[in-house]
């Protein structure tokens, strides 16, 4: 498309809210009216990806003319679904994507106040900039966003005065009539509600965004603006995993499933301890004048036990994929155990060091309650980000050494690069854990050492 054609089509699409520029040439001017929340799209996209560094599938609510959409789409490996309520805005956004050759963007016309968000699928994060104060029930929109994603980047207004507030559905709101002089900058509803600050945070929390980080805030007597990052429980756990290298993700399976796995583990262990079964997969060490101590059953997926199919439940791969940020396949299975009063500690180590951080993780399904008293997992936060050739004992001694206690059914996720270990089990309580390694199928992994 040459400059003359770009000029012609940009003219046909007037009036523009943000204007249109391409390769340094201004083809259309924007609104004469200032926007309080105006932010350079590149800056917003940068802040968005800093908040959600592993995000690849992104939902944008209120695409307007596609300025933020385009900035998001410039991140390699991403796909963007942008929703816009006004047809004329959508046409301009489509034109912007066409001129810039953005092929990883899908734009749809949609009213977010009536849309069934479940039909959209799942997203790594949601961008909602300049929209929340244009709807009648902003708390409902936040709940809809939480249904499809564990993270939201929210840029919005809130009402700064206590005068004229009413209570609706438990929230303090200011009724506002949409009277912006440019219809394309208004919401689809004429009468909308602005939350006050306390109600905005309550609405985020009630939607399930349990971790809220304020990136920017400007207050005034009435119209205030704020930029926050909200993370649901999983989103907060993913952030901790990426920063620390490990996190207790809580239970994934129902109690009856955990009971079946535990019964299967007891059966497998008894084959060695009671029936003398010997195999290269049954890792053990000798103790003078005592029976050998079993500490690992490797290749768990190849053992003959009724519960084997539970190892391939989709919930586990879906959880691992969320933490790694890519499709995954299971690459190793094991039952790790610490016999009461006999088990030694596990030396500090890295499972692997020849892979990039956040690409391969272990999911440990806890079959027993574990703490320092019976040799729970311990790790050094952030050690997964250190170079490949670190001195593990030095990192261990430098600490901090953080225990990861768990309850029956919890799933602990750790990066295979994490420097970790565990103490002995002098207690009278078992510690049994099913460990499954997950990796992106595109990664070539050498076999684990025996």
Looking at how many chains there are and whether they match, the oligomeric state comes to single chain
Helix content: 25-40%
Indicate the structural class.
Answer: alpha+beta
Shape: elongated
CATH topology of the largest domain: the name is Rossmann fold
Number of domains: 2
Radius of gyration: 27 Å
Per DSSP E runs of 2 or more residues, the count of β-strands stands at 23
Say which CATH homologous superfamily of the largest domain is assigned.
Answer: Vaccinia Virus protein VP39
Mean of the pLDDT scores?
A: 92
The strand line-up of the biggest sheet is 5-4-3-6-7-12-11
Number of helices: 10
Name the CATH architecture of the largest domain. Answer: 3-Layer(aba) Sandwich
Strand content bin: 25-35%
Task: Give a concise summary.
With 450 residues, the chain is an alpha+beta fold.
Notable features of this structure?
450 residues, alpha+beta, Rossmann fold, Jelly Rolls, 7-stranded mixed sheet, 25% helix
Describe this structure in words.
The protein has 450 residues and is of the alpha+beta class. It has two domains: 3-231, Vaccinia Virus protein VP39 (Rossmann fold, 3-Layer(aba) Sandwich); 245-439, q2cbj1_9rhob like domain (Jelly Rolls, Sandwich), CATH 2.60.120.620. It is built from ten helices and 23 strands. The strands form five sheets. A seven-stranded mixed β-sheet has the order 5-4-3-6-7-12-11, sandwiched between helices. It has a seven-stranded antiparallel β-sheet with strand order 13-21-18-23-16-15-14. Helix 5 runs parallel beside helix 6. The longest helix has 19 residues, at 255-273. The radius of gyration is 27 Å and the shape is elongated. The mean pLDDT is 92.
